[in-house]
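Protein modeling request. Please complete all fields; requests missing the sequence field cannot be processed.
Requester role: graduate student
Desired output: 3D structure, token encoding
Chains: 1
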Amino acid sequence: MTTDKMPARMAAVSLNGALSNFYDCIEKEKGFSPHTVAAYRRDLTEFAVFATSKNIPPFLETTLEKKTLRSFTFSLSLKKLKARSIARKIAALKSFSRFCARQGLLPNNPAKLIVTPRLDQKLPVFLTEQQAKELTPPPDGDDVEKSRRNHAMIEFFYGSGIRLSELCSLTIGAVNVHGGTVRVMGKGRKERIVPLTGTAIDSMERYLVLRKTRKTPEAPLFANTRGERISTRQIERIVARELSVVSQQRKRSPHVLRHSFATHLMDAGADIRAVKELLGHSSLATTQIYAHVSREHLLKAYRQAHPRAERGIQ
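Delivered output (314 residues):
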């Protein structure tokens, strides 16, 4: 189907074909996690279904028109979705539209001007320094190997600030015991070297001494009883259980330990750019939240301790 406004070259590009290329790009070239790719698929499929319901021809340029994009975003607001959900769907559309423009599949990026809902910035949940100190190894029980493995994972999260997916993919050879570092494969397959605390290394060594499964450099660092890489779901359950001992907060995920790592560094005066590199953030703006948390901490301590501070102010 060709119109005066749609060159034959553009008309030949189907929406589904462009979406397929986009998914390949973010998965194979950019190295997005399966979870992230699946989220993009859900959001963009919702847009494609919406366009079909409006009888729009299934070609790229006829679908990614400003009028259709605006109509879709308006339909999201009518569904009474949370602003964060709407923002995520719009972000997926913007990424897809930008990809199509860069690939020459569209003459420009029509989604560039779509307005994203303003979001309230949520402060990250983290442990206090006292709670972190209480993350001590439990006494050896019936399954000493598993107990030591679980505590070593906690120490790795808090001692290096790595993500759940990064810890899950670690191999024994990734740890430089003498240098006190670990080699991490982050988002977008970007590798970085992160320092490790002596406590984390000691915990790992105490675990590996007892481990019965293979311990070659390419073997998973944290494994189940069969020597297979422990799953992210298992790690989440273990961390939630371990954190419940020191924290009554509802959120007790691996990311709480990552947030604690960054917040405690900032509280101690670490340079924000250094924290950015340690966390593997691509943008300093992402790391800024910890500077805000650190300031909040400082103000709270001041208000509680200074004799002339207004105690009622929160």
